[in-house]
Amino acid sequence: MVGVEAILRILAYLASVVGLLPLLPYLPVWVLGLLVGGFVLGWVGDRRGNYLLSNHLATGVSIAFFIWFVSQASIANLVHPLIELLCQLLAVRLATEKSPRHLLQLFLLATIILAASSMLTLDLGYLFYLVLNILLVTTGLVMLSFYVTDPHLRFTRPQWRLLLKTLLLLPAGSLVLMLVLFVVLPRTQTPLWNFLNPQPTGRIGMSDQVQPGSVAELAESGEIAFRVETEQLPIDALYWRGIVLNRLEGNIWRRELRNIEEKLVSKSSSQVELTIYSEPKADHYLVTLDRPIRIADVRHEIKSDGVIRGRLRRDGKVSYRVWAQYNSKSRQLGDTWHYLQVPNRFSDRMLQLAEEIAQQKNYAAKIDRLDRFFLQQQLSYSTTKLAKTENPVETFLFDSRRGYCEYFASSYAVLLRLAGVPARLVGGYLGGEFNQLGGYYLVGEDAAHVWVEAMDDDGFWQRIDPSRLAVNAEEALATNRSGNVSTLQAFADALKHNWSRMVLNYDLRQQISAVRSFVGQVRSVKKFDPASLGKLAWGLPLLLLPATWFFFRYRQQRLQRLISDYRHVIAQAAALDKLPDSLGLFALADLSGEPLCREFAQLYGAAVYNGRRVTEAEYQRLKEIIRQLKKLQLSIDVAKLCPLGNNEASRIL
Amino acid sequence: MKLTRAGIIYIVLTLLLGFAAVNTGNNLLYLMISALLGFMAISGLLGQQNLQRLQAKVLPADDLFATLPGRVEIELSNHRRWLPAFLISVEIGTGTRLFPILAPGKTERRPLAVTLPGRGYQTLPPIWIRSCFPINFFIRSRRLSLQQQVLVFPCPHSANLPLGDGVGRQTRQHETTRPGIDGELRSIDNYSSSDPLKSIHWKLSARHDEYKVKRQNRLGSPSLLLNLDDFPGSLEERIGQCTFLVDQLFRQQRSVGLQLEDKQLQPGSGPHHRLKLLTELALYGRC
What we know:
The complex is a heterodimer of chains A (653) and B (287).
Chain A: E1 2-3, H1 4-20, H2 29-48, H3 55-72, H4 79-95, H5 100-117, H6 125-149, E2 154-155, H7 157-184, E3 209-210, E4 224-229, E5 239-245, E6 247-249, E7 252-254, E8 262-265, E9 271-278, E10 288-289, E11 292-296, E12 300-302, E13 308-310, E14 318-325, E15 329-332, H8 348-358, H9 363-376, E16 380-381, H10 392-400, E17 402-403, H11 405-418, E18 423-430, E19 433-435, E20 440-444, E21 448-455, E22 460-464, H12 473-478, H13 487-504, H14 508-526, H15 532-573, H16 585-592, H17 595-608, H18 616-632, H19 638-645
Parallel strand pairs in A: 16-17
Antiparallel strand pairs in A: 1-2, 3-7, 4-9, 4-20, 5-10, 5-18, 6-7, 8-15, 9-14, 11-14, 12-13, 15-22, 18-21, 19-20, 21-22
Chain B: E1 2-3, H1 5-24, H2 27-50, E2 54-60, E3 69-78, E4 85-92, E5 95-102, E6 107-115, E7 120-123, E8 127-131, E9 138-144, E10 149-152, E11 173-190, H3 202-208, E12 212-222, E13 224-227, H4 235-251, E14 256-259, E15 264-268, H5 271-283
Parallel strand pairs in B: 13-14
Antiparallel strand pairs in B: 1-9, 2-3, 3-6, 4-5, 4-8, 7-10, 8-9, 11-12, 14-15
Helix pairs in contact in B: 1-2, 4-5
């Protein structure tokens, strides 16, 4: 025999721990100390049956904590004090007596604390804790209702088994309904209390300028920039376009908005559809595969040079669909003189090199000459120990010969412009890790890259990546390329991605899209497709078997139901709850004296006693008799039925 | 269905979290609120099913006297195939009995005290089955239509045997079956340690080389014929006094008869005769 009370206490402690776990990294030490104290005091009190913290004292302490909260909280600083207050109240409640009311408060506080943790972290672990919380709290609340009804209830093992079987229905059903309700619950386009949500930490944005030499070392952030759901693409196609920088001011490349048209010459063989899930950013540029044709699901402005600027807040995650062609080229329409613009001051070495390149007969030859120069210089790709000088490009090309993509791209584009070849810088990302499990590319912030677009002799912009001319290009850029990740890492990231895609990013737009998709599917069902019959034929036996079983079972049971209905009508006529089982149909017919009852008994008896099934016509007639008996408002003398049937006590009628 | 205080707290909490979810657009809060609503829906369904297909019967366990608490047996049957019944509280009048767990297809009997107001055939008060299962947020109840009548004896009023002509008249003495010292010889047994020494039959003992004792019946009190008209007070008081005396006299194994206005029940003994007299008193003056 196991008592309910002991189990309830364990459940309350466990639910409290599960509620607190996601918050542990965010709680100050003194709150953690309070919680540990609460657990210890409560446990000792449970063992001794005597609690150090009396109810009155607990109320006083709780009020003191609330006053502390009011003094700390403000609109700008609301979340942390609120969560700390909840933890303090939980600690107090843990330390006090476990009365039914207090146990209920413990379960509710644990649930609220878990809900409040979503204001600090959006981690996938929340789902795990939520499932555990549902399991523990539902079980605890059921136990609590037993405890409230009778605190001394004790059950045997078979009784516990019965209870647990039914108990499992609650969390299981709640979880299934949770998924359904999560999809259909109404959402707003713009939440009013967004300030309560977790703010992304250390948002990184695409810089709208490139200045080689501005930093001595390039730090690795390890953060995720975006994920792209698409088919696996050729490695060389993985250039993710973000921004085009077309104006050089001193050492700084900037973006200048001009109304210069370009026309994209597409190659349909390389067209792909991508869905991009971008992490929160500090800028408004939407990254796409180079080059984008069309974008959907987000308000945006697309420029002719392939730069897309989103018209939205970037402090949250955002997803959008893109149609792009990785082998397409863009033809420049109109003047190209501004792509030749350079500052006036350059050193003699630079000018001399540019002049040498300029002597080549056409753009292709000039580019080829420049490539050879880069190779001759034995430039190496490096992100550390970079020289900080006033002329970083010149230092990079002739002295240090070390630099990262910005050095390569900037110096390459400058020399092209000096040699009379229109050129510009493109900022974005290079490469990405393809997750086979999830079917998407994962691109980190460390894959940020800058390359050059130069004009060819036909007036098309061609992509040139000068970083590939580095002596160590293979190794340096390999990390950015489509590297292989371990299965475990891929699985973990696929989970994260789906969590983000299906839960965190689920919004009104996706709700509408889901409804449209559902309506579309319903409509498509109306269109009969003979080819689908073949597929159905396989499933037909699977459907037929249970259907046949249900049919025969129904046929058997319908007669039993009919008899049950008939006896119920007669019992009602005699003002009885139930007829005695000893009364057969013929006995009932005799006692009631009703011709319809006699007909019912004869019809049914003729079939059953002759060992045959009741025909459909007979079944319908029997049903009709019951219907008529109900209309008749039949009344049978109780005394006729009871002496025969009620053998419990002679005094009971 | 009655909402409890815990239920109110749960609903307020759900509404608050729902409000926070809609206004923050935080999908984790949406998950939580979906779980809370799902839990409420499933618990509602289980709670509703918990009261379905239950049948209660009332079986008198003791004699029922008007206005006095009497014991009945509640027989609760769970006719469901799969789902057990939990925390079913059966309520008749002011009496309540809890059935914590009733397995599917099983029947259990538990005693319950009921008090019925009047004598004669009385319809039992409505039977209510209530349950707070699965969560003590709502208490659901269902009234079972049980058109069952029980015979309630009159409320006994303390009384002495009236003195008067023909009342309390001693008709004849009769022997009771209880052991005594003044009745006929019923048997001769071996002496046992529980027998008093004075019961030893010395002559017989001398003949058999062991102690022998004589067993005799007790001589009962004389039969009585109670006349309802000989008691003071109103009709109900007189019936009550008569009921008291019938009950007391039968306990003393006395033979009792009853003289009603136009009916005489000859003195007799035994439980059936007692029931017969009490039934007459219960139904006296009732159609």
